[in-house]
Known about the structure:
Order of helices and strands of chain B: HHH
Mean pLDDT of chain B: 89
Low-confidence stretches of chain A: none
Shape of chain B: flat
Distance between the termini of chain A: 25 Å
Strand content of chain B: under 5%
Number of helices of chain A: 7
Mean pLDDT of chain A: 88
Oligomer: heterodimer
Distance between the termini of chain B: 21 Å
Amino acid sequence: MSRALGVGLLAGAVAFCWWEGGLHQDQTAAHWSVLAVIGATLLATVLAGAGRQPEPVGRWARGPFPLRRHLAEDRAGTLGAALWVLVVAAVVGWDLNSFVHQAHDLPTLSSIFGHVTSSRAGRAGLFALWLALGATLALGWRRSRGRA
Amino acid sequence: MSAGAVVWVVLGAAALLWGTVSSVGRELPGPIAALRWFARSWLGRALALCAWGGAGWHLFCQRP
């Protein structure tokens, strides 16, 4: 990608995020812009990535299960991954607990993010992070074309 | 600050601390490694993109 195209794309993305930051969750334009981003990201995933995954599904899905072998080969890495699972499970579990109780002193993760998205800069910044994450998930870590 | 908010602060601090430590330590899987693991197969990538899309729709179009 040429430098000029990269700068143009970046400027367009920044302008788009700032425009989106000025919208409200109830607005039709907000709904269509989010749906358009999701659609474009899924399309890019298929177009850019067909046949370029590093690993077949079966091997990927079985990957985490031989725990003893992982512990023997990479103890620190395995325990580190387990700690990530614990942190994510704690966040999901506490969010579910807060959601089920619907109490004022038990804020959900959604309501916390609501404080961020209530301002234009906060909504635009969070939208930019969301765009970057989607682009990374759609296009990142692909096997080069032509490699077996 | 409510009791629920305190739990969120503790969880956020734990995630931030572990994210920083695991990003610095070469032997530990950081947040990028977690994303990379999902992107290794089309199923993992599809699952992660579904979660990403659902989160975006909720945050920018539904959140009360």
